[in-house]
Write a structure and sequence with these properties.
single chain, 305 residues, mainly alpha, 13 helices, 72% helix, globular
Length: 305
């Protein structure tokens, strides 16, 4: 995968993640059983991708015969980055659920997206990946944009929820750090394990929840499109992107989340919120385009053998 395709995959993952806000508003099931069903469906989606039953045979140019795609081996090495990434993925989802119940939605989303700061700080020490001036400028612009977008909804109350939102940001940051640490090995296995753990945590609470057919349809969509496919895209893209680059692109998610609510429910953001969204999208786009261009220029300047 090229660097540009990795950017597209990470942005597409953010778009898929952003669909949660609309569906969680209409699904009547409590958060923990929702977490469990969504995790189970996502794990099945990832497992099907890993099995790749849908890939056609390909033609071998040297022999002219058709060959089947080899099924990838399951690489469960139970290393610290693999288990840590799986646990961090579950933590990010579970802590955000608690935050959303204990504080305002604006507080939960805004505080969760302190994640880029954690990635930048810990990435320097854990991954030995330097944070460029371009990254810091993009991060500053994104903070300003998020303040504009969610500033009207922020409140001083909900200390417990605010604390868990901070934990959600911290664990999401470590999820990306652990994933980047495995850039040469088992990223897809990490997201598979994480969603299996989420299913084990939440499914026991499904008993007595009595979901409606509409709830089941919504949870199936969330499992496949809001968690399963984005997990696959992140697992592929993180091999080519730095942890900071990945998390900066993911800040598109809190901006796009209310867009779906606007389109389907009609909740109109304020002009200040629209300005904040434009700042975030502009900062992420500018940083991604410029970083990709600088990468190509650096590659072109390398002497050929």
């Amino acid at each position: 995968m090229t660097h540009r395709k990795a950017i597209y995959c990470m942005a597409l993952a953010a778009i898929f993640f952003s669909t949660s806000g609309l569906l969680i508003k209409v699904i009547s099931v409590a958060h923990l059983p929702l977490l469990g069903v969504r995790g189970a469906v996502a794990a099945l989606t990832i497992a099907l991708f890993m099995a790749r039953p849908f890939l056609p045979s390909r033609r071998d140019p040297s022999t002219g015969s058709n060959t089947r795609h080899a099924k990838p081996r399951l690489n469960l090495n139970w290393s610290l980055p693999q288990l840590g990434g799986a646990a961090a993925l579950v933590g990010a989802q579970a802590f955000f659920i608690i935050a959303a119940r204990e504080t305002t939605a604006a507080n939960a989303i805004f505080i969760q997206y302190t994640a880029p700061v954690f990635v930048a700080f810990f990435g320097i020490h854990y991954l030995r990946e330097a944070v460029s001036k371009l990254d810091w400028l993009a991060l500053a612009a994104i903070v300003v944009g998020l303040l504009c977008f969610y500033g009207d909804g922020l409140s001083a109350g909900g200390a417990v929820g605010n604390f868990f939102a901070l934990l959600a940001g911290l664990t999401f940051a470590w999820f990306l750090l652990f994933m980047r640490k495995q850039k040469d090995s088992s990223t897809i296995e990490t997201v598979l394990l994480g969603n299996v753990f989420a299913a084990l945590l939440g499914l026991p609470f499904l008993f007595g929840a009595a979901p409606t057919p509409a709830d089941w349809a919504g949870m199936l969509f969330l499992g496949v499109f809001q968690i399963g496919l984005p997990s696959i895209l992140i697992a592929l893209a993180i091999k080519e992107l730095t942890a900071v680059g990945a998390v900066l692109i993911q800040t598109l998610e809190p901006i796009l989340n209310p867009v779906w609510v606007l389109l389907f429910i009609g909740e109109m953001p304020t002009p200040l919120a629209l300005l904040g969204g434009a700042i975030v999208i502009g900062a992420v786009t500018f940083r991604s385009v410029l970083a990709n261009r600088l990468r190509r220029m650096a590659a072109a300047s390398q002497p050929t053998a």
